[in-house]
């Protein structure tokens, strides 16, 4: 399942990066996140940053361990998580857009086992719209902080 959403933000790449790369402080600027527990902190940069994130998803509290696999300052970062027989990749990308920037969030779910593939196909259609709403709400929250 692939889901993508984006939002225009009146701010600089650096201002947006400052918010989205502050994963440890995400509970302060993303209303859907209830708790962040930092598990690994790299000496420099974002690659290797690992955390446990708790949020309410589809009416239930869910906790996932995630880590940054790729990052280019003021441009993008990509995270990975493995749970429930699937690999999840999420990317946040900043691009220039008019007087501000466009922040794009994409989420890709890759089922790994036969059971995950069988269950994931019909469930993917049900969750795709709901997942897009969750991602878009995160972007709206980020926009409010940057433009605030």
List keywords for this structure.
7 strands; alpha+beta; Alpha-D-Glucose-1,6-Bisphosphate, Chain A, domain 4; seven-stranded antiparallel sheet; 148 residues; 2 helices
Ordered list of secondary-structure elements with their pairings:
Elements: E1 2-9, H1 13-20, E2 33-40, E3 50-57, E4 60-72, E5 76-83, E6 86-97, E7 100-111, H2 114-147
Antiparallel strand pairs: 1-7, 2-3, 3-4, 4-5, 5-6, 6-7
In words, what does this structure look like?
- The protein is an alpha+beta fold and 148 residues long.
- The protein has a single domain (2-147), classed as Alpha-D-Glucose-1,6-Bisphosphate, Chain A, domain 4.
- It is built from two helices and seven strands, in the order βαββββββα.
- The protein has helices at 13-20, 114-147; strands at 2-9, 33-40, 50-57, 60-72, 76-83, 86-97, 100-111.
- It has a seven-stranded antiparallel β-sheet, with helices on one face.
- The longest helix has 34 residues, at 114-147.
- The radius of gyration is 15 Å and the shape is globular.
- The N and C termini lie far apart (33 Å).
- The mean pLDDT is 90.
